[in-house]
Specification:
The structure is a single chain. By secondary structure, this protein is of the alpha/beta class. It has 14 helices and 13 strands. A seven-stranded mixed beta sheet has the order 2-8-7-6-5-3-4, sandwiched between helices. The chain has a four-stranded antiparallel beta sheet with strand order 9-10-13-12, covered by helices on one side. Strands 1-11 form a two-stranded parallel ribbon. Helix 12 packs parallel to helix 14. The longest helix is centred in the last third of the chain and has 20 residues. It starts with a helix and ends with a helix. The structure holds pyridoxal-5'-phosphate. The site of pyridoxal-5'-phosphate has 12 residues, from helix 6.
């Protein structure tokens, strides 16, 4: 209460009056542990122990990681501790080289880039730290030397954060954005590949490819698409906002020219963290969009793309803990767990009369997220029913489509069953 009162005292009276501070529990109840602290155990015991490392109340099932992840306690505590340290000890900062820094934006942050690179199988030199996926997409779209008449292929389902930079270049510089229509649902990887090939002309410079699409959760055949793009000298730019953290990502094996992502979704990192990978051979082709002291320092081409001025170091510290948390479980194990729960969900949906899976069901096109509808129910109605009846959080994708249901490591097979039970009730 004392903390709350003194905090409120710092605010203007109207703001203080309107502010209801959230209940902030779970921290003192048990120490924050990392996955490696949980010890060897059989699978379900491990996942149950891991669930306790999250502050989502035990009776709430959170299936909306595709929008925003929930960071484990260790990440939250690291961010909070760093913020407290910086704010408390700032007067001790003498700016000498051996003193730690208290902000980002003026340093290459090499150790942090190296650490993040372990998740993508690249080196830290091939990564720029950004604030989210949208930054990464814009840095590519604005950074390429595209001329009037040059063409970019995008899908009609691309998230604005994976596309709009090209629309801006179309308005400003006269490039041509060719929009392909994705079948609902696509039947096979070949169909998606054909779609890109048919939209390609001698003027095509970029294929903007979602790794997993936002609105339909389609997992694209990115490796084959990137190989075809490369044969044609086209930039294969992969939007990894919905894949990094739930699918294994190996940018070298994928063969992409660029890959951008938002670790605040599936990597469970602090909100406002992002990354952009660019294949070493192509890094120097990109202009930076934001310029500060090292804007043209080609000795570290990706640092040129980190020239955004003062940023929040505490978030990067939390990102480091999130990467460690992820690596201690392992990308392959996470993918297996997440996709198994999604398979369980899809199998259950098939037995509910009136349920339609809107996402693809071809095994190469599925992932841990599923979009589905119920006959005669809007997306909003399904979303609200699941929450009001069972504290199950999925996200509406609009009245006519249905809901998006993303399974991640804090979910359990029992939660999936609970959701299926509620859906069956609603459909009856
Ligand atoms: C496929 C895809 N691309 C890009 C974005 C944008 O992410 P951010 O808002 O973190 O930049 C999203 C967000 O949901 C997304 O799903």
């Amino acid at each position: 209460m004392t903390n709350r009162r003194s905090f409120l005292g710092l605010l203007s009276a109207p703001l203080a009056a309107s502010l209801v501070l959230p209940r902030f529990d779970g921290f003192n109840a048990a120490p924050a542990l990392m996955p490696a602290d949980l010890g060897p155990s059989d699978d379900e015991v491990f996942w149950r122990q891991l669930r306790k490392q999250f502050t989502i109340p035990a009776d709430e099932a959170f299936f909306n990681t595709a929008t925003l992840g929930s960071s484990p306690k260790a990440v939250q505590e690291a961010v909070i501790a760093s913020m407290q340290h910086i704010n408390r000890d700032i007067a001790q900062w003498d700016y000498k080289p051996d003193h730690e820094n208290y902000f980002t934006g003026y340093y290459p942050e090499m150790p942090r880039r190296d650490q993040l690179a372990t998740v993508l199988n690249c080196t830290g030199r091939d990564l720029a730290l950004t604030q989210n996926a949208t930054f990464g997409m814009n840095f590519v779209a604005n950074g390429l030397d595209l001329k009037a008449g040059d063409e970019v292929v995008v899908t009609d389902q691309a998230h604005p954060g994976g596309r709009k930079g090209y629309d801006l270049r179309a308005s400003r510089d006269g490039i041509v954005v060719r929009q392909v229509t994705v079948p609902e649902p696509p039947e096979s990887p070949d169909q998606l590949i054909q779609m890109y090939l048919e939209a390609t002309t001698p003027r095509t410079r970029v294929w903007a490819i979602p790794h997993v699409s936002s609105s339909r959760a389609i997992r694209y055949p990115v490796k084959r698409l990137c190989a075809l793009a490369r044969e044609r000298g086209i930039w294969g730019v992969v939007d990894g906002a919905q894949s990094l953290g739930h699918l294994t990502v190996d940018v070298q094996d994928m063969g992409c020219d660029a890959f951008f992502a938002s670790p605040h979704k599936w990597m469970l990192a602090p909100k406002g963290t992002g990354l952009l990978y660019v294949r070493p051979e192509r890094q120097k082709e990109l202009w930076t969009t934001l310029a500060s002291s090292a804007w043209d320092d080609q000795s570290d081409p990706m640092y040129r793309l980190m020239q955004y001025g003062t940023g929040n170091l505490s978030l990067l510290i939390g990102l480091g803990v999130a990467v460690e948390f992820h690596n201690q479980i392992g990308s392959a194990r996470i993918q297996q767990r997440d996709v198994a729960m999604a398979d369980q969900l899809r199998a259950g949906l098939k037995s509910i009369s009136g349920a339609t899976i809107v996402s693809p069901t071809h095994p190469e096109l599925t992932c841990a997220t599923t979009v589905y509808g119920l006959k005669g129910k809007t997306g909003g109605e399904i979303q609200d029913y699941l929450w009001n009846k069972g504290r199950v959080r999925v996200r509406s994708m609009g009245d006519t489509v249905g809901v998006r249901h993303a399974c991640h490591i804090y979910n359990s097979p029992a939660e999936v069953d609970k959701a299926l039970g509620l859906l069956k009730q609603m459909a009856a």
